[in-house]
Amino acid sequence: MNDHRNGVHAPSQNGLSRRSFAAVLGSAAVAAAGAPAAKGSSAPSRAAELVTLGKTGVRVTRLAQGTGFNGSGRSSEHTRIGMKAFTSIVRHDLDLGVTFMDTADLYGSHQYLRRALEGVPRERYSLLTKIWPRTEYWNAYSGGAKAEIDRFRKELNTDYLEIVLLHCMMNDRWTQEYARAMDELNELKQKGVVRAVGVSCHDFGALKVACASPWVDVILARINHVGKAAYMDAPVEEVVPLLKQARAAGKGIIGMKIFGAGRITKPEERDASLRFVFGNGLVDAVTIGMLSEAEVDDTVNRIERALAG
């Protein structure tokens, strides 16, 4: 799940003035133009630079705001902090030019994002969401993708979605198990309702299939410099060549668990993970579940240093 944290805590801001909201729209417009500036700085933030996900043509900021820390059953730490605090974090992201939002049905954060992004032009931000393709106590899965995407678009108040993934692939048989969902996502992509499709992987066999599958445009992959002790699907030396091969083949790679789902806590270790992930060219972008404005600032600064080095 989207539960990678950087461990910095600070009280959330309460609300936004009209002036602050105007600044949000202005910085979001700059991000869409491809040169977002960090708040209080004339230099562009590396975290807010636009990158292209593989061969998809979809452009997103290098850093995505995750919304699923400890996510399960349509709830997460991000929804549990309440609408006001959630909105304040998202607006702070936009202030810094970070306009890529990572959500999922599992997290229950669709309608939180809808509220947080009210008034922001749709072309000023990008959405990644995920279908939970299993029936659970909280989820009556249709077996496909059309019903889910129709509901997601209503919940997010949008006509289209940049990226839709099948969530949490756990074995190397997922292309057979979810063939109908794959077919329906293809149809939606042909209609322009979805721009790119793919999977998030929580198993090395699933990841290997994803890297080889021609259906997959985008992979959400667990990657850091530690390996299985920090929630990766396999040792670092096995995952790295696979991600490099997938990127070379034109797949967009978004890294998750960069901070090991909260297991990588020391500042120097978080910096080492970012340097490893970006320095080795393993990803196009990363998603990190920041839970306060201070965590957003800390992450943006760490990415800046990692890429500068």
Describe the protein.
- This protein has about 300 residues and is an alpha/beta fold.
- It has one domain: Alpha-Beta Barrel (TIM Barrel).
- It has helices at about 20-35, 75-80, 85-95, 110-115, 145-155, 175, 180-190, 205-210, 235-250, 265-280, 295-309; strands at about 50, 60, 65, 100, 125-130, 160-170, 195-200, 220, 250-255, 285-290.
- The longest helix is centred in the N-terminal third of the chain and has 16 residues, at about 20-35.
- The two termini are about 30 Å apart.
When the domains are counted, the total is 1
Largest beta-sheet details: 8 strands, parallel, barrel
**What is the 3D shape?**
globular
The assigned structural class equals alpha/beta
C-alpha termini separation? 30 Å
Q: Strand order, biggest sheet?
A: 3-4-5-6-7-8-9-10
Q: What average pLDDT do the residues reach?
A: 89
> What's the CATH H-level homologous superfamily?
NADP-dependent oxidoreductase domain
